[in-house]
Design brief:
heterodimer, A: about 350 residues, mainly alpha, 2 strands, B: about 425 residues, two-stranded antiparallel ribbon, two-stranded antiparallel sheet, 8 strands, globular, binds CIS-heme D hydroxychlorin gamma-spirolactone, binds protoporphyrin IX containing FE
Chain lengths: ~350, ~425
């Protein structure tokens, strides 16, 4: 059953990074659109993301619940030491969620739309940056596990671990990943001129992503961040990165040819490889503190709890996944069952 | 004030905010599907208009509920890490089921909001029902987790460790049923009277009375029925507490001396220093009867509990009075509505509509007061009898900044949502019949 729980933990992490990420990314793409294209982008986002955006974000809640039920010792460290960035993430999620709904459900369309729009775009950018920074803090090796909290300064315990160049790079990398996912997804949802715009955007964000990834690894290596060093010395992780680099070639061609489906799945695959590469080298030691590495599997609750959670997740998954699939299919998010005419995509 | 106090204030404030949106998110979908059904049956365009207006309301409230709920899921851990470390695995079951219920709700909402003219009519309507049912289910599940904090079961406590965990028994703790029943009814009472009040105001101002009377009627029926059952369910809760949490009962009633044939106090000013209550109305024997069903039963007073295990008495007592007072009032209002079904001339009176306008906020005030009774009445415990709140709090200093930030952000949000609702109504009223 532990494996079922672990599967759902990683599965919801992956889906949050992918779907939630595409959702954040949509706002980033809008932020970086020329004023003329902002309107089109906005309408496309509403049409494509509207029906599913709420569901996309519940993966985060599922992730959280699995963590606190099945990995309480691990969760405990996260919530104590990452308090500050989490507050910022929550602020971003709040602003973004309400701005999205306000701008589409306000009964009167007037100047207040300007506010909603900017709130949506800016929070779409900063939320994934802070999320990335939180993750960066977990692996950055700067967390001090204190016995006696009063013997450290506030800055050392609660700021330094997440507020540094390395985590900022991780944050920017994740934001770029989001924008890359969203623009690639949107290629498949538009026609003609607009599609050209998104395919150009997608190309830019791919470049940004690769560059940031490169800088991140170099910086981590030079600064002797343990996570990055182990990552580079791990053949499997390196292989996964190599695979994702190889996949860039067909992805690039798919984007250039404005191919609806291939580009979407190739982009998703990129994320799978990157996430896998990042987690593999250290699994299950996903918290690296200044002193030691903490295993996810340390301090597990009794067997009965894991058993129960596993069963709940299987039942829940059995109910939810078909429903979700149906929702995405009904509103055209999943195109694989359509006939070939989309495939050519000129 | 210390860090702990600010952490508690923040918890109270954010939960108090969330509960409003949660109640509306649970109950509004039911109004929406009733109106939708009437549209399908009668094809009266007013019902379609109403359904669409309510649907926008549901969407706005749902999202505000969802983001504040997401914040809460983090907050439970961020404010009370020690609590979640031990309680998390035990009450994991309601939360994991709740996660599933949210998902179902979000999926159904996606279908409903975006499904007009795309989905088959019947199926589209049915997805609205699913929103309502899964909303109520998630409400019941979280309340069951809260019930566990009041009546912890499903584990053995040995040398500071929580072992032999049985998640099913923790879910079905002795408090879950009374609390979940009372809370579900409360959500219906509060939301129904609030929505009915908003529409009654439009009728009072004579703005499209046809439309608003229809809306009023759908909402008030739910509220009137629930308001009738509410005091009955409250009595069950009180009896339950008398048995399991006698300190809370004593605090609710500001009852200091252990005695038999104990009177019930109505109103009264509590002096916690002197341990006395002045300016009260006494009903002889009523407390003994309400708590144990026997006028001569003994009720233990606050003086007989250890000093360091007493909750803040005055707050709990006043909150309880407010809740029961409002409960009684709303029950009478429900009665008035049923009378007006027989004596239709009442509906022509201005004061009739004005009355419902004044009742609009009361249900929500009672909800907040009820939670203060439950949560403050449990102090100083976070897990009743096992863990004190002071042991659970985060070691991080500076909670006051986090508290002030939430206050500012949520107040702005609340104002914006109110303003948006006014705009919805303005647009609704602008249409000419
Ligand atoms: C519309 C709202 C509303 C109304 C009119 C009432 N209540 Fe209530 N009450 C609640 C809303 C509420 C609540 C917010 O839903 C609470 C908080 C926790 C819970 O389970 O329900 C609650 C808690 C609560 C508790 C504490 C339960 C616990 O700590 O486990 C008691 C004893 C009562 N109520 C009793 C009553 C009585 C005797 C009422 C008589 C009229 C009454 N309530 C009306
Ligand atoms: C939405 C309705 C709720 C409201 C309005 C509410 C209100 C409050 C209030 C006023 C306090 C502060 C008590 C004090 O410190 O004096 C509090 C504390 C707390 N509540 Fe609730 N509560 C609600 C539901 C819940 C639920 C469902 C849970 C958990 C499953 C919960 C968990 C807690 C925790 C962990 C604390 C902090 C510890 C404590 O003070 O006991 N609450 N809540
Ligand atoms: C008694 C107290 C509570 C009740 C009755 C309640 C009920 C609800 C309901 C009905 C919703 C759906 C929102 C809507 O339809 O508008 C909701 C949302 C949510 N609640 Fe609460 N809740 C309570 C307390 C809590 C607590 C303590 C937590 C955190 C642990 C929490 C976490 C959430 C989350 C994460 C959501 C968002 C789910 C989504 O995205 O749909 N709730 N709550």
């Amino acid at each position: 059953m532990l494996y079922v729980v672990l599967f759902f933990l990683l599965f919801s992490l992956l889906l949050y990074v992918l779907l939630g990420g595409a959702d954040f990314g949509a706002g980033i793409v809008e932020l970086f659109s020329s004023p003329r294209n902002k309107r089109t982008t906005r309408d496309t986002i509403y049409r494509v993301m509207g029906p599913v955006w709420e569901a996309n974000h519940i993966w985060l809640i599922i992730l959280l619940v699995i963590l606190w039920v099945a990995f309480p010792a691990y969760f405990n460290v996260i919530v104590i030491y990452l308090h500050v960035p989490f507050v910022l993430v929550l602020l971003g999620i709040t602003m973004r969620g309400v701005a999205f709904i306000f701008r589409h459900y306000d009964a009167i369309v007037d100047e207040s739309q300007v506010w909603y729009n900017w709130m949506f775009r800016i929070s779409s950018l900063i939320t994934p940056v802070f999320l990335g920074m939180s993750f960066g803090a977990l692996i950055g090796g700067k967390i001090i596990l204190a016995e006696d909290f009063s013997s450290y300064s506030f800055y050392d315990l609660y700021m330094l671990p997440w507020f540094n160049v390395f985590t900022l790079l991780v944050g920017l990398f994740y934001a770029a990943l989001c924008a890359f996912l969203a623009s690639t997804l949107l290629i498949g949802e538009t026609e003609g001129e607009v599609r050209k715009i998104f395919s150009r955007k997608s190309a830019y964000f791919t470049i940004a992503l690769v560059l940031l990834g490169f800088i991140l690894i170099i910086y981590g290596y030079v600064q002797e961040v343990l996570f990055i060093q182990d990552f580079i010395h791990n053949p499997v992780s390196l292989g996964a990165v190599g695979m994702s680099a190889l996949l860039l070639i067909p992805l690039w061609r798919a984007i250039k040819r404005q191919n609806r489906i291939a580009s979407r799945y190739l982009a998703g695959l990129q994320v799978v490889f990157v996430l896998f590469a990042a987690l593999y080298a250290h699994f299950p030691y996903i918290i690296i503190t200044a002193g030691k590495e903490l295993s996810l599997l340390e301090g597990l609750p009794p067997h009965s709890v894991i058993q129960n959670l596993g069963v709940m997740l299987l039942i829940g998954g059995g109910v939810i996944l078909p429903g979700l699939f149906h929702l995405m299919k009904s509103f055209g998010m999943i195109k694989i069952f359509r006939t070939g005419e989309d495939e050519v995509g000129q | 004030m210390e860090n702990l106090d600010f952490a508690r204030l923040q918890m109270a404030f954010t939960l108090g905010f969330h509960i409003i949106f949660a109640c509306i998110g649970m109950v509004m979908p039911f109004f929406m599907v009733v109106s939708h059904k009437k549209w399908l049956n009668t094809r009266n365009p007013l019902y379609l208009e109403l359904t669409k207006a309510w649907q926008k309301g549901v969407a706005i409230f749902f999202v505000t509920g969802a983001v504040s709920g997401t914040a809460l899921s983090f907050e439970l851990g961020m404010l009370w890490p020690e609590f979640m470390k031990h309680a998390g695995p035990i009450i994991g079951m309601p939360f994991s089921l709740e996660g599933a219920a949210f998902f179902v709700e979000a999926i159904a909402l996606g279908f409903y909001l975006y499904g007009w003219n795309k989905l088959p009519e019947k199926f589209h309507w049915f997805t609205g029902i699913i929103i309502g049912i899964s909303g109520v289910a998630s409400g019941i599940l979280v309340v069951s987790a809260n019930g566990w904090m009041n009546a912890p079961t499903g584990f053995d406590y040995v040398n500071g460790e929580y072992i032999n965990i049985d998640p099913v028994q923790a879910l079905l703790n002795p408090a879950w049923f009374t609390q979940a029943l009372h809370m579900t009814l409360a959500a219906f009472v509060a939301t129904s009277f609030a929505v009915a009040g908003v529409h009654a105001f439009q009728v009072y101002r004579n703005k499209r009375p046809e439309l608003h009377k229809k809306a009023f009627k759908i909402a008030v029926v739910f509220g009137a029925v629930a308001a009738f059952l509410q005091p009955l369910s409250g009595d069950l809760s009180a009896k339950d507490i008398a048995e399991r949490q006698p300190v809370k009962l004593a605090a609710m009633e500001a009852h200091y001396e252990t005695d038999t044939n104990v009177p019930l106090y109505i109103g009264g000013i509590v002096d916690e220093e002197q341990q006395t209550v002045s300016h009260k109305i006494e009903i002889p024997g009523a407390l003994s009867f309400l708590a144990f069903g026997d006028f001569d039963a003994e009720v233990v007073g606050l003086k007989d509990f250890p000093e360091d295990e007493l909750p803040p008495v005055a707050v709990v007592h006043y909150a309880f009075q407010v809740m029961v007072g409002i409960g009684t009032l709303l029950m009478i209002a429900g009665l008035l509505y049923f009378i007006s079904l027989k004596y239709k001339s009442l509906l022509k009176r201005k004061w009739y509509w004005l009355l419902f306008v004044f009742l609009a906020p009361l249900g929500f005030i009672a909800v907040e007061a009820g939670w203060v009774v439950t949560e403050v009445g449990r102090q100083p415990w976070v897990i009743y009898g096992f863990m004190k709140t002071s042991e659970a709090v985060t070691p991080m200093p500076g909670m006051e900044f986090s508290f002030y930030m939430y206050v500012v952000v949520y107040l702005v949000l609340a104002l914006t949502v109110t303003w948006l609702m006014r705009r919805q109504i303005k647009v609704l009223n602008a249409v000419k019949d």
